[in-house]
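User: Quick sanity check before I run a bigger batch. Here is a single chain. Can you write out its predicted 3D structure?
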Amino acid sequence: MIKIKKFTFNPFQENSYLLINDEKECIVVDPGCFNREEETELSSYIETNNLKPTMLINTHAHIDHVLGNHFVANKYQLGLSIFQSEHPMLEMAIRSAEMYSIPYTPSPEPQYFLKEGDNIEFGDTSFDILHVPGHAPDHIVLISEEENIMIGGDVLFKQSIGRTDLPGGNHEDLIHNIKTKIFPLKESIVIYSGHGPETTVGDEKNNNPFF
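Assistant: Done. Predicted structure follows.
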């Protein structure tokens, strides 16, 4: 069974996640920790609970989701996994940090590239990769239908959707991809979003004002 630990980091109030299996391995998704206090909060939880980080994944490469990449990759000796053509957005994060006057140690280069249809084996379960562009050019989400979990990044929020006015965003693509890739999933799947509270596929399919 997968346990989800959420941290809310940085001035953008971004949700960073640890996915933890029964063997106490964990996947770090979208680490947004950007100062010493937030880095310590993340690492202390890992150490206190005797966890072993095994992967570092970005759902997309906007600055608020990658601020902690360098810290996590360096501390736990992990290679970054990301959708291959999202790499230019990762490079753009340096300019974004300058624009927002946010301290940022640039992310390491990706070592592993994910694509739609990939399956990440994780203990007794696995996560499927879906490619859901619109908020970012090559945004991915992680889904375990067995565990009723979706790590959704900034695709779909409770009663909202990801903004599409940033470079590479496309409103029509986002709406189309949510309708055709997310809404056909089981309505009971819990969506762990990149900002704000959890929701479910069914709640957003039936109540989200954008649809």
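The radius of gyration is 16 Å.

User: Great, the batch can go ahead then.
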